[in-house]
Amino acid sequence: VPLAMQNKRIVSLDLGGMVAGTKYRGEFETRIKQVIDEASKMENEVILFIDEIHTIIGAGSAEGTLDAANILKPAMGRGKVCIVGATTLTEYQKYIEKDSALERRFQKIDVDEPSESVAIEIISGLRNSFEEFHNLVIDDDAIEDAVKLSIRYVTDRYLPDKAIDLIDEACSAKSMKYNSDEDGVKTLRMDSQNLQKEIEGFVLSGQYHKAIKIKEKQNEIEKKISEKKAKKIIPREKRLHITGDDVQKIIERITGVPAKNIQIEDMKKLKDLDGALRNHIIGQDEAIASIVSSIKRNRVGISDRNRPIGSFLFLWPTGVGKTELVKQLAREFFGDEKALIKLDMSEYNERSSASKLIGTTAGYVGYEEWGMLTERVRRKPYSIVLFDEIEKGSFEVFNLLLQVLEDGTLTDGKGRKINFKNTIVIMTSNIGSEEFTNKASQIGFDVTDDKEKKIIRDYEKIKEKVVGGLDEFFSPEFLNRIDRVVVFNPIDKTVLKKIIVLQLALLTKRLSELKIIFEYDAKALNLILKETYNPEFGARPVRRYIQDKIEDVIADHLIKGKKSDTIRITANKDTLKFL
Fold this sequence. Notes:
Layout: E1 9-12, H1 15-19, H2 27-40, E2 46-51, H3 68-77, E3 82-86, H4 89-96, H5 100-103, H6 116-134, E4 137-138, H7 140-153, H8 161-178, H9 185-204, H10 208-231, E5 241-242, H11 244-255, H12 259-262, H13 268-280, H14 285-300, E6 310-315, H15 322-333, E7 340-344, H16 353-358, H17 374-379, E8 384-388, H18 395-407, E9 409-411, E10 417-419, E11 424-429, H19 433-437, E12 445-447, E13 453-455, H20 459-468, H21 476-480, E14 484-487, H22 493-512, E15 517-520, H23 522-532, H24 540-559, E16 566-572, E17 575-578
Parallel strand pairs: 1-2, 2-3, 4-5, 6-11, 6-14, 7-8, 8-11, 15-16
Antiparallel strand pairs: 9-10, 12-13, 16-17
Pfam families: AAA (PF00004), AAA_2 (PF07724), AAA_lid_9 (PF17871), ClpB_D2-small (PF10431)
Keywords: ATP-binding, Chaperone, Nucleotide-binding, Repeat
GO molecular function: ATP binding; ATP hydrolysis activity
């Protein structure tokens, strides 16, 4: 501590309290003058501290009078008083900077966010007060996890505030869960309240002797309550402990990400992610591997944390599983299929479309409306952002995406920075689809004499030709910011057969809930394969065929009351037969 600052007393000045009760002109000015006189006395060695110092502008002012700022200016200019103020940068720019005379009387000091290690020290210093208040013990790993997890998952606030809040909420949650009313304090309080009502009734009716007797009973109950509350002070060695797991549960509640996904030590979820996706998405192993590898790099902390978790461009025509993969990824990684923000870029093909995504700036029509992209990400920062048919977006929309893909942030129309660092950005495109569907192309389909379409699975050749043509549609800056261009495999008969089996398994599960056994043989399976195989549409015809040819028939039977315990299907020539 500098010598000039030693033995100084820091006194907090409550402006709200000084303004309160000032009815007449001059009362507030008198109070401020008295504070200045007292603080300027040499023997007092006082430094005034004013929190939210921007509130001195206009405080106590009325027509023909001075506000607190103009009263304090001369005293500060003469060096009679020492004042330390605190405010936010936004309010400093809005209020203090506009008054140049007030601004030059202060030395502005920007207080940076503390580092991780300093934040841990700060919270460790507050540990005792939290432990005494909540009657718990806070472990070291809880403090460390509160700081580390808040840095990673609470991105719209600053240390140490956000980590302190995590500790406080974890303590409150555990205290409320385990500190039950086993000792009957709540019951005793209700008894005391009921007796109080009886006392008031006897007093109103003039039966004071009865009121006195009831009051004696109430005093005994209040004494018991005090004794029980005193017994609730648990010795430190018997208190419950707040651990890192408790902090992780609070993060789960705030972010919506399951706690098992965010545990720093637990990588089991990432190990299982690849297999979980392959179980639902058939025939797209390379696409799944590309996505999972990017997510793993991000989760273990070796990728750039200032960018989204991953950014991908999906290519191939309809029906190969692009949208289904996105839904499954949301379910497996974020724990909820609803963690998907989908934007159809055909709706954002005009120059003014960018404002629809981020919100209109002040002064323009629609300023009150939120951005379709920024507001949804702000409310659900842990999600997949899907830009469907990205090539249809306007040039201005692509400029916004450059910022998202490079910096992981986007400023909305209200000037707020929206964090995209915990999102997965996926874009789909039909660019090059003619290379996949052109029957005359040796890359796409080969038409045999019997007119059966057959896909030539020359994946590398397809990928090279299509990816090589992307620069005709997208700028190099945009393509270089994408982590991976994923060309999906076409759907051949082998893959389609597995998809049919998967869809029939889902139908079997739904019918089992109705206590109905569903069975099918190889003939039925081969007929469904024959009727639904169309490389141009991928797997989409499968679901439609099962709905029209199987589910509708079963529904009609159930409605007519022809419910049976077992439903079997087979094939007779080109027709499904129900047994």
